[in-house]
Specification:
heterodimer, A: 394 residues, alpha/beta, Rossmann fold, two-stranded antiparallel sheet, 17 helices, 10 strands, 48% helix, 9% strand, B: 122 residues, mainly beta, Ubiquitin-like (UB roll), 5-stranded mixed β-sheet, globular, binds zinc ion
Chain lengths: 394, 122
């Protein structure tokens, strides 16, 4: 086959077929279009304003490593005026996270960005190794997901940043759309495609790689020789997500536009008023002050189960929802039987390790009086259980 | 004609993105494979027709050969239906194999083939 020239510059030899467009492009044009598309995503969604302090959620993996590199490149090239930080969560997984954190530490040097590492151990008093040794490998991804989300917010708060960007790419979002469809979680379906989410007093989270294909992210890392870590978590990966991913990759092999098409499908779903009405009102956790849709936030609830040690798996199971999305707004269902079980768990916390009080960044912090009132007012607790998870727990 | 006198080609093969874990945790390998593959594609890789029969060795043959000769564990994470599992990127001399005919690319002595998994966490 004769060498093909680049569809964009018509000069250099093409080295990549773009999955989005089928165009054959050269190395330099690839770097340029990849970066420019991310820049366009950022500017069209007006994600940042000059002076913003932005933390990049950095795991040491391909997506966040490429994100850190591209954010630095664009911030310099287009004078975004952002102050960039790397924020990493140390889940305490020997032989996995300790190695990937070494990658993040090298990125800190290479990209010249301040790095904050927050560990489950310092925040919750539990490493994932300790959690798995207590509860086994069945629900550990749920603990990890709930703990990571809150840890990221707390790390961002400690850095006084207003915004966390994560490396979620188009493939990840399409996969989440598929999973929400398969679970019948219509309320979450539209929200999972949003480029930027912000709760009442939470830190903004956005996904500058929303339209970036995984293939291009990996190719970008390869051609730029970026240093990333790629080993599966040693504790059981999310099998359901794995199946969704394999299915998506099969679809993509047949038709590369499938990924963007699925994202558009998710965006096209409209959440009706009926479904919105069943979503839970946001409040703050009565123990740690973190955003919660129940009396206790999910992290405090899970932590309480761990601290008690004896909490029966069924009770922990009842409180387990999906790891990936907080606050929890799924379709809801209440039963008296579960209320009884939850009451049994929500007894005095005096002798347990708990999570320090959550501080939102100063710019977003509500008046302290409001918060104290919320703490002192005894709000009736309700159990809201995702019907889908009920069936998986049965 | 004996098997030892069959023409062979030498290739540099690299694994990344976690795939190296299936290949003795080594990223870089130098392999020598028969210059001709049994024909048609997908036939038993241990049978090399004498006298230069079969088809010239292509990447589809290399994938089958790697699975049979170099892969140490969990073959299903590497090969599926005679090609790489969806989600594995392949480069031929630093070019996307989708521009080179994918599995039908005919290998030359000294070629560098890179396999990168995109399936590991980001
Ligand atoms: Zn070009
Ligand atoms: Zn809490």
């Amino acid at each position: 086959m004769p060498p093909r020239s680049c569809a964009l510059c018509n000069k250099a030899r093409a080295i990549l077929k773009r999955p989005k467009t089928g165009q054959q492009i050269c190395r330099e044009c690839f770097f340029w279009v990849f970066e420019t598309e991310v820049h366009n995503t950022i500017t069209e969604a007006a994600l940042f304003k000059p002076g913003d302090k932005v933390a990049i959620g950095a795991s040491g993996g391909k997506d966040s490593t490429v994100l850190a590199y591209v954010m630095k490149t664009l911030n310099d090239r287009y004078n975004y005026g952002l102050e960039l930080f790397l924020l990493s969560i140390d889940e305490g997984i020997t032989g996995y996270r300790d190695d990937s954190l070494e990658t993040v530490k090298r990125n800190q040097q290479q990209y010249d960005m301040p790095l904050k590492i927050l560990s489950y151990d310092e925040l919750y008093g539990w490493t994932m190794d300790a959690i798995v040794s207590q509860i086994g490998k069945k629900n550990n991804c749920t603990f990890c997901g709930v703990f990571r989300r809150q840890a990221l917010d707390r790390g961002a708060s400690a850095l006084h940043v207003d915004h966390i960007v994560t490396g979620h790419n188009a493939d990840d979002i399409a996969e989440t759309v598929l999973m929400n469809i398969m679970r019948g979680d219509i309320a979450r379906l539209g929200r999972c495609t949003l480029i930027c989410t912000q709760g009442e007093d939470t830190i903004k989270r956005s996904k500058p790689f929303k339209y970036a294909y995984e293939k291009e992210i990996v190719m970008y890392a390869y051609f730029k020789k970026l240093d990333y870590f790629s080993t599966e978590c040693i504790y059981s990966p999310d099998a359901y997500r794995g199946h969704a991913r394999a299915f998506l990759k099969d679809l993509e092999a047949a038709r590369p536009s499938a990924i963007i098409d699925i994202i558009h499908s998710g965006e096209a779903f409209e959440v009706t008023e009926v479904i919105k009405a069943t979503q839970k009102v946001q409040q703050t956790c009565k123990r740690c002050g973190y955003m919660s849709s129940n009396y206790l936030c999910k992290a405090c609830t899970l932590l309480e189960g761990l601290e008690r040690g004896g909490a029966s798996p069924s009770v922990v199971g009842l409180l387990v929802t999906t790891a990936s999305e907080l606050p929890f707004n799924g379709l809801s269902l209440q039963t008296n039987r579960m209320q009884g079980k939850l009451d049994a768990v929500l007894i005095s916390a005096d002798n347990m390790r708990t999570i320090p009080l959550f501080q939102t960044p100063s710019t977003l912090r509500p008046p302290m009086s409001t918060f104290k009132e919320q703490l002192s007012s005894s709000t009736q607790s309700q159990v809201i259980i995702d019907p889908i998870h009920l069936s998986t727990l049965a | 004609m004996s098997a030892t006198s069959s023409p062979a080609i030498s290739l540099k093969v690299e694994f990344g993105g976690g795939l190296e874990l299936l290949f003795s945790n080594e990223r870089s390998h130098t392999v020598t494979i028969p210059a001709r593959a049994p024909s048609p594609a997908g036939a038993d890789t241990d049978v090399h027709p004498p006298g230069g029969g079969g088809r010239p060795a292509d990447i589809a043959f290399l994938i089958a050969w790697l699975r049979a000769n170099l892969l140490q564990e969990r073959a299903e994470l590497f090969e599926e239906n005679g090609t790489v599992r969806p989600g594995i990127l392949v480069l031929v001399n630093d070019t996307d194999w989708e521009l080179e005919g994918e599995g039908e690319y005919v290998l030359k002595d000294g070629d560098e083939i890179v396999f990168i998994s995109t399936l590991h966490g980001g």
